Amino acid sequence: MTKEEARKALLERRAALIEEDRLDEDGRKPVTLDQESVGRLSRMDAMQVQAMAKALEQRRAAERARIDAALKRIDEGEWGYCAECGEEIAEKRLAHDPSVTHCIGCAR
Questions:
Q1: What is the mean pLDDT of residues 60-74?
Q2: What is the spatial distance between Cα 107 and Cα 84, in angstroms, rounded to a whole number?
Q3: 5 φ, ψ to 5°?
Q4: Radius of gyration for the chain, computed over Cα atoms and rounded to the nearest angstrom
Q5: Residue 79 contacts by C-beta under 8 Å, 6 or more apart in sequence?
Q6: DSSP-derived 3-state class of residue 88
Q7: pTM
Q8: Contact 103, 90 (CB under 8 A)
Q9: Separation between Cα atoms, residue 103 and residue 50, nearest integer Å
Q10: Rounded to whole angstroms, how far apart are CA atoms 19 and 103?
Q11: Can you tell me which residues the record assigns to a coiled coil (predicted)?
């Protein structure tokens, strides 16, 4: 995988994460506590859905941060090298996830 292919894949994944966040906005809205319109179990379900949506949002934010860091490494010429030992990261590993920071040996 070339740096430009990696950049393209990272930018596409970042855009997809932003779109997923946009589509999931309703799930993160506060749960109304109106006893008359929503029963207790329905409210509990809504709160559980809200909690899961917030957790997904946090995971997507963490992945976006990894993508941004990988894009910065590409710009600085450090992409593709292990952050710990400095050796090249295997091509297949980078093809699977261009945002990885460690070779397989150091990732263990």
A1: 97
A2: 9
A3: -65, -40
A4: 19
A5: 3, 6, 70, 73, 98
A6: strand
A7: 0.79
A8: yes
A9: 37
A10: 30
A11: 46-73
Q: Rounded to whole angstroms, how far apart are CA atoms 24 and 29?
A: 9
pLDDT digits (tens, 9 = 90+) for 20-33: 988 877 666 665 55
Give the integer Cα–Cα distance in Å for 73 and 101: 9
43 token code pair: 């409210």
Q: Which two tokens stand for residue 12?
A: 């596409």
Contact 54, 48 (CB under 8 A): no
Structure tokens at 22: 């946009």
Q: For the chain, how long is the longest CA-to-CA vector?
A: 63
Residue 70 neighbours by CB distance under 10 Å: 25
Q: Domain spans of the chain?
A: 3-79
Q: For residue range 75-89, list pLDDT tens digits in order.
A: 999 999 999 999 999
C-alpha pair distances (Å), 56 with each of 32, 51, 60:
21, 9, 6
Q: Is 94 left (phi over 0), alpha (psi -120 to 50) or beta?
A: alpha
